[in-house]
Specification:
single chain; 478 residues; mainly beta; Neuraminidase; 2 domains; 4-stranded antiparallel beta sheet; 3 helices
Length: 478
């Protein structure tokens, strides 16, 4: 038995045959085929971009002439071109609730499941022969041509996270204290020290067209554009990092640019910094960065260093003084008051209503990685080592993830660079984190530092950057 997988990217049909000698049932994929399909999507050089909170348009067919259609909201953007488990469950529930039925189909007729990202990038999966189940996706013994509950869950399982594997270390540049990283895909990733931007092409790092400048504090971008921001400067490249253009000041007197984040479709972009009369401000652009207006003044002069969100009206900000805030597009809610003795440099979340962030200054109480679920805030449990006074020696600077079960943090202590990963997520109390050993002795190299991490939302590929004790900028990826 084989599974014929077809999908289109910008109108170009892609196809692959996934062989498997041990079929489950008619029309259902085995775990081996699921893994092969996952590898196939992960191997795409330019996977379609999924927009958080965008609807999935789903069409079932028992024959080409008889489509059935349902819109399924996307609650958690995961891997481009495939459904999340939540979407699979919602799809099954909506199908049953709709009361629609599929006409009987001869055994062996392929069942086609078609879904679009923003109604513009059609994807199709064919399961030969048709899955057998109830007329509305029920249990066994029903009509042929219907998608069974098991079939829906089988599709949801495609987004199971990539298997754990060891890190690979690569040199970014000699004598480069690399501190920032952002990716467009696993084959187009950018990293920076304070003066240069480097580009990863899937195999090696090389200096981009931006070098010898002053103060790069943040990188962010989407397909077709990458930004570098710091101090008074906003620079942008629209040719994959080959050339960079200084952008006009977003507002008169702009300075201290620190953080940048936006939606994948550029419908909203936020930046943080200062300008006269506004010591800690967040600006927003709704036209791809052409024009900027004040979104809000940050309380307590706490300039955000980390920004992450799920929609224009669902964004989190973490600050130099460890303040954490949520913006709903009109009002700011404080999640954690500034402590004044720590700095939070990064934040990331797996789903709306949640945010993780990390702190860089070893102080008591121990709270190197924090997690907020709604208004509840938890200090995560981890392998933080302590000094003689009982305070942690670990500084955690970067955090990113693929889903709730696969989150990574970058940091260091007196023994060397450290990679951490979540092992037991918990939305009702502290979760548990463990060390994820780095190669080439980086985590036993005093002076080595891991400072930022980016996880590809399409494939789960992880890129962590930092430096070794000899000053070389390096990356660790898996």
């Amino acid at each position: 038995m084989s599974i014929n997988v077809k999908f289109a990217i910008n109108g170009v049909i892609q196809a692959a045959i996934l062989p498997d000698a041990t079929p489950f049932n008619d029309g259902m994929m085995t775990p081996t085929q699921l893994r092969q399909l996952e590898v196939l999507f992960a191997s795409l050089a330019s996977p379609p971009v999924i927009v958080p909170a965008a609807p999935y348009f789903v069409s079932f067919m028992s024959s080409v002439a008889l489509p059935q259609e349902i819109n399924i909201p996307n609650a958690s953007a995961q891997r481009a071109g495939v459904m999340t488990k939540e979407q699979a469950a919602a799809l099954q529930a909506a199908w049953v609730a709709s009361g629609k039925t599929l006409p009987a189909a001869p055994k062996g007729l392929p069942l086609s499941l078609r879904f679009d990202v923003n109604l513009s990038v059609p994807q199709s999966v064919q399961l030969p022969p048709a899955a057998f189940g109830g007329a509305r996706g029920g249990g066994a013994g029903g009509q042929s041509g219907a998608l069974t509950g098991e079939g829906v869950q089988m599709l949801g399982a495609v987004v199971s996270a990539p298997p754990a594997s060891g890190w690979t270390q690569n040199l970014i540049a000699a004598n480069a204290g690399v501190q920032e990283v952002w990716g467009i895909s696993k084959n187009e990733i950018y990293a920076s020290d304070r003066n240069n931007v480097y580009k990863w092409d899937g195999a090696a790092w090389a200096l981009s067209g931006l070098s010898g400048v002053n103060q790069i504090n943040a990188l962010w971008g989407t397909v077709g554009s990458i930004w570098a921001m710091g101090g008074i400067h906003l620079r942008k490249s629209v040719d994959n990092g080959a050339n960079w253009v200084d952008q006009p000041a977003p507002i008169a007197g702009w300075s201290n640019g620190q953080a940048m984040w936006g939606m994948p479709d550029n419908s909203i972009i936020y930046i943080s910094g200062s300008y006269p009369g506004h010591g800690a401000a967040v600006l927003q652009s709704v036209d791809g960065g052409a024009n900027w207006t004040l979104a809000f003044d940050q309380p307590d002069g706490d300039v955000p260093k980390g920004i992450f969100g799920y929609a224009a009206n669902d964004v989190y900000f973490v600050g130099f003084n460890d303040g954490v805030y949520h913006w709903n597009g009109a009002a700011l809610t404080q999640i954690q008051a500034p402590t004044g003795n720590e700095s939070s440099f990064a934040c990331w979340g797996p789903a709306s209503g949640q945010i993780y962030w990390c702190t860089d200054v070893p102080t008591l109480p121990v709270k190197q990685v924090m997690h907020a679920v709604g208004a509840a805030v938890f200090a995560e449990t981890g392998p933080w080592i302590t000094n003689g006074g009982g305070a942690p020696d670990d500084e955690v600077w970067g955090i990113s993830g693929f889903d709730a079960n696969h989150i990574y943090a970058a940091g260091f202590n007196n023994n060397g660079a450290k990679a951490y990963k979540i092992s037991v997520p918990n939305n009702a109390g502290p979760g548990t984190w463990v060390l994820d050993a780095l190669p080439s002795g980086a985590d036993t190299d005093p002076g080595a530092q891991a400072l930022q991490v980016w996880v590809d939302p399409a494939t789960g590929f992880v890129m962590m950057v930092g430096s070794r004790s000899n000053g070389d900028g390096v990356s660790w990826s898996k």
